[in-house]
Amino acid sequence: MGKEVIILAGGLGTRLRSVVSDVPKCMAPVAGKPFLWYLLKYLSNFDVVRVVLSVGYLRDTIIDWVNEYGGEFPFGFDYAVETTPLGTGGGIKLALDKCLNNDVIVLNGDTFFNVDLDDIYGQHRLHPASIALALKPMEHFDRYGNVRVNGNLIVDFEEKKHCDKGVINGGIYVISKSGDFFNGLPDKFSFETNVLKPQCARSNLYGIVQDGYFIDIGIPEDYERANKDFPGIPIFKE
Protein backbone atom coordinates (compact mmCIF):
# COMPACT_ATOMS: atom_id res chain seq x y z
CA MET A 1 0.00 0.00 0.00
CA GLY A 2 1.16 3.55 -0.69
CA LYS A 3 2.04 6.12 1.93
CA GLU A 4 -0.35 8.01 4.17
CA VAL A 5 0.42 11.59 5.18
CA ILE A 6 -0.99 13.75 7.97
CA ILE A 7 -0.87 17.51 7.41
CA LEU A 8 -1.30 19.57 10.58
CA ALA A 9 -3.56 22.40 9.45
CA GLY A 10 -5.40 23.39 12.62
CA GLY A 11 -3.15 26.21 13.87
CA LEU A 12 -4.41 29.71 14.66
CA GLY A 13 -1.60 31.52 12.84
CA THR A 14 -1.43 34.39 15.33
CA ARG A 15 2.04 35.60 14.20
CA LEU A 16 0.86 35.86 10.59
CA ARG A 17 -2.34 37.79 11.32
CA SER A 18 -0.85 41.13 10.27
CA VAL A 19 -0.67 39.95 6.64
CA VAL A 20 -3.07 36.96 6.48
CA SER A 21 -6.09 37.21 8.77
CA ASP A 22 -9.10 35.59 7.13
CA VAL A 23 -7.85 32.07 6.34
CA PRO A 24 -5.89 29.33 8.17
CA LYS A 25 -2.12 29.45 7.67
CA CYS A 26 -2.10 26.54 5.22
CA MET A 27 -4.49 28.52 2.99
CA ALA A 28 -2.37 31.68 2.95
CA PRO A 29 -2.01 32.73 -0.69
CA VAL A 30 1.52 32.27 -2.05
CA ALA A 31 2.18 33.43 -5.61
CA GLY A 32 -1.51 33.06 -6.42
CA LYS A 33 -2.21 29.67 -4.83
CA PRO A 34 -2.86 28.47 -1.26
CA PHE A 35 0.26 27.27 0.56
CA LEU A 36 -1.51 23.90 0.89
CA TRP A 37 -1.48 23.52 -2.91
CA TYR A 38 2.33 23.53 -2.85
CA LEU A 39 2.45 20.90 -0.11
CA LEU A 40 0.08 18.65 -2.06
CA LYS A 41 1.97 19.25 -5.31
CA TYR A 42 5.15 18.18 -3.51
CA LEU A 43 3.47 15.04 -2.12
CA SER A 44 2.41 14.14 -5.67
CA ASN A 45 6.07 13.26 -6.36
CA PHE A 46 5.87 10.30 -3.97
CA ASP A 47 3.73 7.20 -3.64
CA VAL A 48 1.12 8.90 -1.44
CA VAL A 49 -2.37 7.38 -1.58
CA ARG A 50 -4.09 9.29 1.23
CA VAL A 51 -3.78 12.63 2.98
CA VAL A 52 -5.43 13.23 6.36
CA LEU A 53 -5.81 16.92 7.13
CA SER A 54 -5.86 17.72 10.84
CA VAL A 55 -8.13 20.78 10.85
CA GLY A 56 -9.68 23.13 13.38
CA TYR A 57 -9.55 26.91 13.01
CA LEU A 58 -11.53 28.09 9.93
CA ARG A 59 -11.64 24.48 8.74
CA ASP A 60 -14.49 25.03 6.27
CA THR A 61 -12.13 27.13 4.15
CA ILE A 62 -9.81 24.13 3.80
CA ILE A 63 -12.57 21.56 3.27
CA ASP A 64 -14.34 23.67 0.64
CA TRP A 65 -11.08 24.21 -1.26
CA VAL A 66 -10.20 20.48 -1.22
CA ASN A 67 -13.73 19.63 -2.40
CA GLU A 68 -13.19 21.94 -5.38
CA TYR A 69 -9.55 21.29 -6.25
CA GLY A 70 -8.62 17.98 -4.60
CA GLY A 71 -9.16 16.10 -7.86
CA GLU A 72 -5.93 17.64 -9.19
CA PHE A 73 -3.95 15.33 -6.92
CA PRO A 74 -3.36 11.55 -7.14
CA PHE A 75 -4.56 10.69 -3.62
CA GLY A 76 -7.67 10.73 -1.50
CA PHE A 77 -8.45 13.02 1.43
CA ASP A 78 -9.84 12.62 4.92
CA TYR A 79 -10.14 14.95 7.90
CA ALA A 80 -9.45 14.80 11.62
CA VAL A 81 -11.53 17.64 13.05
CA GLU A 82 -10.49 19.44 16.24
CA THR A 83 -13.61 21.03 17.70
CA THR A 84 -11.33 22.66 20.31
CA PRO A 85 -7.56 23.22 19.83
CA LEU A 86 -5.65 20.07 20.80
CA GLY A 87 -2.07 21.26 20.34
CA THR A 88 0.41 19.68 17.94
CA GLY A 89 0.41 16.37 19.78
CA GLY A 90 -3.35 16.11 20.14
CA GLY A 91 -3.77 16.92 16.46
CA ILE A 92 -1.36 14.16 15.43
CA LYS A 93 -2.93 11.63 17.80
CA LEU A 94 -6.44 12.38 16.49
CA ALA A 95 -5.31 12.14 12.86
CA LEU A 96 -3.43 8.86 13.42
CA ASP A 97 -6.75 7.26 14.34
CA LYS A 98 -7.89 8.01 10.77
CA CYS A 99 -4.86 6.30 9.21
CA LEU A 100 -4.87 2.72 7.95
CA ASN A 101 -1.10 2.16 7.68
CA ASN A 102 1.13 1.52 10.68
CA ASP A 103 3.83 3.92 9.45
CA VAL A 104 2.59 7.46 8.80
CA ILE A 105 4.32 10.64 7.59
CA VAL A 106 3.48 13.91 9.37
CA LEU A 107 3.96 17.40 7.90
CA ASN A 108 3.34 20.86 9.31
CA GLY A 109 0.80 22.78 7.26
CA ASP A 110 2.81 26.02 7.45
CA THR A 111 6.23 24.58 6.56
CA PHE A 112 7.70 23.37 3.31
CA PHE A 113 10.86 21.24 3.40
CA ASN A 114 11.91 19.70 0.09
CA VAL A 115 13.18 16.33 1.31
CA ASP A 116 13.20 12.86 -0.23
CA LEU A 117 10.25 11.30 1.59
CA ASP A 118 11.05 7.87 0.13
CA ASP A 119 14.47 7.99 1.82
CA ILE A 120 13.14 9.14 5.19
CA TYR A 121 10.27 6.62 5.10
CA GLY A 122 12.66 3.81 4.14
CA GLN A 123 15.12 4.66 6.90
CA HIS A 124 12.28 4.76 9.42
CA ARG A 125 11.25 1.24 8.40
CA LEU A 126 14.73 0.10 9.50
CA HIS A 127 14.09 1.59 12.97
CA PRO A 128 10.33 1.12 13.48
CA ALA A 129 10.44 1.56 17.26
CA SER A 130 11.71 5.12 16.76
CA ILE A 131 10.27 8.35 15.40
CA ALA A 132 12.14 9.62 12.36
CA LEU A 133 12.72 13.37 12.02
CA ALA A 134 13.90 15.25 8.95
CA LEU A 135 16.66 17.66 10.00
CA LYS A 136 17.72 20.77 8.08
CA PRO A 137 21.31 22.12 8.24
CA MET A 138 21.33 25.84 8.96
CA GLU A 139 23.83 28.63 9.69
CA HIS A 140 23.51 31.80 11.78
CA PHE A 141 20.03 31.16 13.18
CA ASP A 142 18.15 32.03 16.35
CA ARG A 143 14.51 31.40 15.43
CA TYR A 144 14.88 27.61 15.80
CA GLY A 145 16.44 25.40 18.43
CA ASN A 146 19.53 23.42 17.47
CA VAL A 147 19.16 19.62 17.43
CA ARG A 148 22.17 17.71 18.75
CA VAL A 149 22.85 14.36 17.13
CA ASN A 150 25.24 11.48 17.65
CA GLY A 151 25.38 9.78 14.28
CA ASN A 152 21.69 9.48 13.41
CA LEU A 153 20.53 9.38 17.03
CA ILE A 154 19.04 12.62 18.35
CA VAL A 155 20.47 13.29 21.80
CA ASP A 156 19.11 16.75 22.69
CA PHE A 157 16.90 19.63 21.63
CA GLU A 158 18.58 22.88 22.61
CA GLU A 159 16.62 26.01 23.50
CA LYS A 160 16.31 28.72 20.87
CA LYS A 161 19.42 30.93 20.88
CA HIS A 162 21.88 32.21 18.32
CA CYS A 163 23.73 29.34 16.71
CA ASP A 164 26.50 29.73 14.13
CA LYS A 165 25.96 26.31 12.61
CA GLY A 166 23.75 23.31 13.35
CA VAL A 167 20.67 21.35 12.32
CA ILE A 168 17.05 22.17 13.11
CA ASN A 169 13.87 20.12 13.32
CA GLY A 170 12.41 20.44 9.81
CA GLY A 171 8.88 19.53 10.92
CA ILE A 172 8.59 16.25 8.99
CA TYR A 173 8.17 13.02 10.96
CA VAL A 174 7.52 9.34 10.37
CA ILE A 175 5.66 7.66 13.24
CA SER A 176 4.57 4.06 13.79
CA LYS A 177 1.08 3.68 15.24
CA SER A 178 2.28 0.54 17.03
CA GLY A 179 4.67 2.62 19.15
CA ASP A 180 3.53 3.62 22.63
CA PHE A 181 4.48 7.27 22.10
CA PHE A 182 1.05 8.68 23.08
CA ASN A 183 0.17 6.33 25.93
CA GLY A 184 -1.20 8.10 28.99
CA LEU A 185 -1.33 11.54 27.39
CA PRO A 186 -4.47 13.74 27.51
CA ASP A 187 -6.42 14.85 24.44
CA LYS A 188 -4.56 18.16 24.31
CA PHE A 189 -0.75 18.18 24.45
CA SER A 190 2.41 19.35 22.72
CA PHE A 191 4.12 16.87 20.41
CA GLU A 192 7.47 18.58 20.94
CA THR A 193 7.31 18.70 24.76
CA ASN A 194 5.30 15.59 25.62
CA VAL A 195 6.50 13.18 22.93
CA LEU A 196 9.77 14.23 21.33
CA LYS A 197 11.61 15.18 24.54
CA PRO A 198 10.76 11.99 26.47
CA GLN A 199 11.45 9.80 23.42
CA CYS A 200 14.77 11.58 22.98
CA ALA A 201 15.66 10.62 26.56
CA ARG A 202 14.86 6.99 25.64
CA SER A 203 17.07 7.14 22.50
CA ASN A 204 13.98 6.66 20.32
CA LEU A 205 14.47 9.58 17.90
CA TYR A 206 16.24 9.01 14.61
CA GLY A 207 17.39 12.11 12.71
CA ILE A 208 17.88 12.19 8.95
CA VAL A 209 19.72 15.26 7.65
CA GLN A 210 18.69 16.58 4.24
CA ASP A 211 19.62 19.96 2.79
CA GLY A 212 16.59 20.72 0.61
CA TYR A 213 14.83 24.07 0.39
CA PHE A 214 13.15 24.94 3.72
CA ILE A 215 10.68 27.66 4.67
CA ASP A 216 8.26 28.20 7.56
CA ILE A 217 5.64 30.84 6.64
CA GLY A 218 4.65 31.43 10.27
CA ILE A 219 6.09 34.96 10.35
CA PRO A 220 5.47 37.76 7.83
CA GLU A 221 9.09 38.01 6.61
CA ASP A 222 9.26 34.35 5.60
CA TYR A 223 5.75 34.47 4.16
CA GLU A 224 6.93 37.24 1.85
CA ARG A 225 10.03 35.22 0.97
CA ALA A 226 7.85 32.25 -0.03
CA ASN A 227 5.91 34.53 -2.39
CA LYS A 228 9.19 35.44 -4.10
CA ASP A 229 10.76 31.96 -4.08
CA PHE A 230 7.98 29.54 -4.95
CA PRO A 231 7.37 30.42 -8.62
CA GLY A 232 11.00 29.45 -9.32
CA ILE A 233 11.06 26.04 -7.59
CA PRO A 234 10.93 23.35 -10.33
CA ILE A 235 8.62 20.88 -8.55
CA PHE A 236 5.88 23.50 -8.42
CA LYS A 237 5.56 24.01 -12.17
CA GLU A 238 2.09 23.09 -13.37
From TrEMBL:
It is an enzyme of class 2 (transferase). Its EC number is 2.7.7.71. The keyword Nucleotidyltransferase applies. GO terms for molecular function: nucleotidyltransferase activity. Residues 5-229 form the Nucleotidyl transferase domain. It comes from the Bacteria. Keywords: Nucleotidyltransferase, Transferase. PANTHER family: SUGAR-1-PHOSPHATE GUANYL TRANSFERASE. This is D-glycero-alpha-D-manno-heptose 1-phosphate guanylyltransferase. The gene is hddC.
